[in-house]
Design a protein that fits this description.
Shape: globular
Radius of gyration: 18 Å
Strand content: 5-15%
Helix content: 25-40%
Length: about 270
């Protein structure tokens, strides 16, 4: 059981401000809706952002039809997604491409994953890269700002490069979609879904390999092949990463636990 939160008399905790950064289409519904729901229940102030303020939509194949039954979202996650899609914050996102937009006003910036090709909009965005390059150093402990990413969301960070060409996560421990998971999904569905499970098409680099290339040491990539929930929290930065949809619940729990730790008196 967690230790009770101890606070000094008169101390007040401000509500954490959360921003979920998304492409217009293609994110995984579980990796988006499960953390959103947990953070909402915890009382966090949540906003969404897309490039031009269009309401984002998650990958339809993960929500309905035989593809949902094959490897898609579970019923509980679909229910969470439907409620999230009707929320005021998701129906009215802010735009991350406006000239005055900044991540500085948020305590948590979260990047959900998704393998549908639409997520390339955010993975490849020079605007987002610049925002991340500015924000990520501000999460260095003992800061109380947090950045979190799951699956292909980690690629947004790996592709965000400093002026010297190094990725913002160069010195971090991280996880993301393991190559063996990606290959199993791709080859297991290729006959009926083509290159659907390869965000950059047939023959493209695995997510794991793409991320290892930007790390100071490949061993910083933590790739548990146990299908049970798994996350990684970096030691230097308030950075939490996860691999795939099955990690989403633990991913959210670890984020909440980290924020709770900021308010405990040691």
């Amino acid at each position: 059981m967690d230790e009770p939160q101890i606070m000094s008399p008169g101390t007040s905790i401000s509500t954490p401000k959360v921003l979920i950064m998304m492409a217009d289409y293609g994110h995984d519904p579980t990796e988006t809706a499960v953390p959103y729901t947990a953070l909402k229940i915890a009382g966090y102030d949540i906003k969404f952002a897309t490039e031009n303020g269009r309401p984002p939509r998650c990958d339809k194949k993960m929500l309905e039809g035989f593809t949902q039954k094959l490897l898609g979202a579970k019923k509980e996650a679909i229910s969470m997604y439907k409620k999230m899609a009707l929320s005021d914050e998701m129906r009215h996102p802010i735009s991350w491409s406006t000239t005055d937009f900044t991540l500085d006003t948020f305590d948590l910036v979260l990047f959900p994953g998704g393998h549908e090709k639409g997520v390339r909009q955010i993975i490849e965005s020079p605007i987002v890269h610049k925002l991340v390059v500015d924000y990520f150093p501000k999460t260095k402990k003992p800061s109380k700002k947090v950045i979190a990413a799951v699956c292909h969301g980690v690629m947004v960070l790996s592709e965000s490069k400093n002026v010297d060409g190094s990725s913002v996560i160069r010195d971090c421990n991280t996880t993301a979609l393991p190559a063996k998971f990606e290959q199993a999904a791709y080859w297991g569905t290729r006959a009926i879904l083509g290159d659907y499970y390869k965000t950059y098409g047939h023959g493209s680099e695995n997510v794991e390999d793409a991320i290892k290339k930007v790390l100071a040491d490949p061993t910083q990539f933590k790739a548990s092949l146990n299908p049970g929930p798994f996350t990684v929290e970096d030691e230097q930065y308030n950075y939490i990463s996860a691999r795939y949809p099955a990690d989403a619940e633990l991913f959210a729990e670890e984020i909440i636990k980290l924020f709770e730790s900021f308010n405990k008196i040691v």
